[in-house]
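Narrative of activities, Objective 1.

The group set out to show that a structural description can be obtained from nothing but a protein's sequence at a throughput compatible with the screening campaign. Below is one input-output pair from the validation batch, recorded exactly as produced.
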Amino acid sequence: MDASERFAKRAIETISGRPLVAWDVSPRQGAVDFRCLESPTIAVEVKRLAMHDFEQARNRVSRYGGLVASSEVAMCWSVLIELPTDGHPGVAPDVRRLAAELGPILVALEQRGISSTRGAHMDWDEVRGWHGPVVEFLRLAGDAMAMATPASEQLPAGITLVGGWGAACKDDPNVTARVAEEFINGDSKQALNMREKLGRSTDAERHAFILLTDCVAQAWLFDDWGCTRMPTARLKLPEEIDCLWISRGGTSVWWFDESGWHGTEMERQDDTIETASTGSIARG
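Output recorded for this entry:
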């Protein structure tokens, strides 16, 4: 059982108060990851959201994306840049040019007291009220987001490029939900495997538990929102799935067609998880 599966098990058990049994074990290899055998029974399959073509693009960025110490900037900057994939084609950013040209723009942001460009889009009507350096940043980096923390011994002043997929600039929890919805309805190996396993289940409820990794651009925003900003969009789940969970290994939200969105914020204290939930796991 890997860390993602352990967290999913603890999250569902904590929220529902019902035990899950590891099910994808000998002699049942190839079955769903977990089942709750109490009525109504539950089948759970856990996946980390990943895309092969995205990982290839991200690897190209990582060659230049380590922290670059800089005498120009005073803060530790992380720059999340949107990478094109087969499903979302686009023009790949010129990471060499970014690494060379971002410094002066980030310095200008610092001078104006701006430590984040979150919410700034390439829709010029929306950025007219932003400071000039934000517009220059968007022109250079495209769909991207820059965030800074004060420099320290552990995080020296510099610039880190990070590749992301899934609407890096859209400060909207519904976009996060759509990223997960698109993934579970897609034709990636992971999504097909998840639907195939849950499709074989005869349990009363079939739960897809999606862990957002750092490669998902929206995951950065998800960390900040917690449950204070919940998705509101109705999702279209594949017929093999009754409930979709989206989690970062802390904050988790889930969708049932009958009852809509619910969420919980989890904090780890040693080996325990404390929750403050916005709704029951029940359908109604």
